Amino acid sequence: MLPIAIDVMSGDRAPREYIAGALAALAEDGELRALLVGDGGLIDSQLAGCAPRLRERITVVPAAEVIGMSEHPREAVRRKKNSSMRVAVELVKSGRAEGCVSAGNTGALAAIAHFVLKMLPGVERAAIISAIPAAHGHTHMLDLGANTKASPEQLCQFATMGSIISRDVYGLSSPRIGLLNIGEEDIKGHELVQAAHALLLASGLNYVGFVEGDDIFSGDVDVVVTDGFTGNVALKTMEGVADLIAGRMRREFHASWLDRLAGLAARRVLRRVGESLDPRRYNGACMVGLAGIVVKSHGSADGVAFSRAVVTAARAARHGLTTHIAQALAAPQSIGSVSS
Fold first, then answer.
1. How do residues 70-83 score in pLDDT, each as one tens digit?
2. Residue ranges making up the domain that contains 191
3. Do 7 and 50 sit in the same domain of this protein?
4. Which of 3, 50, 199, 294 is a Cys-bridge partner for 33, taking CB atoms 3.0 to 4.6 Å apart?
5. Of 258, 279, 300, which marks where a domain is finished?
6. 147 to each of 120, 129, 180, 338, how far by Cα in Å?
């Protein structure tokens, strides 16, 4: 069995949607075991109608406190040592869980994970990485919000970790790395991206150079590297555009009876496109660089989306993500082999 600790109390839709997501992940993966962390009585009441075959793979781990979405990370670390988020991370630290998932306060989760799990040797800062739908399937992008600023050296480390994930977890033999910038020309960008560009050119990674925002979706790169401020703004922009297009199409296909007929005729195609671009399919971002697996779910995730975050944690654990990153950073020559 693969135990994953799941904080079901933090986030905008706790605990009902997160428990539903955990149950969906258990139904999909027969080797998964869920450690549901939070208010024991509330969790038990939500599990009242759970199928016995799933309930036997669930352990409820009590936690008396919850970290709010607006709480300051430093205060969350200092004052809420029995929060569901902290207990879930502690389960990874103690070895009871192979990874943990939370939809709570991103800053608090990052701070607690740093404090409890610590960084892998050679890693300055953890980064949040997630898959983004693209022409060739998906592109991995980091950092998506763990660090509002990043030094050139940290951007280079993000690229290394992104390359390891694409290679060792997703099976790409030579992941193409791009550094997000305002233009593809070597002269573009501020001093930080220019310095990171120079480091990446000498890194041994399969670095293709600067990329622009539209390259995230083009299929021309496999990993896009940026700082957490820019990455988070880009991610939220993508989500907003997706919602805008979906809402506009729904309105247009209901504008008249002819439009409704056109919608019915195109329903199968629209369903396939919608499913392939559904942000819920890509929910679940790994915090890489930590000495343990931590996955951040979107705070407003429903059960479908949250189940993807649990599946992401299980996949990272099965592929030994933390071990792969530690080994690669300890032996930099192994990263160079990606481009060979």
1. 999 998 899 999 99
2. 129-279
3. yes
4. 3
5. 279
6. 17, 12, 15, 26
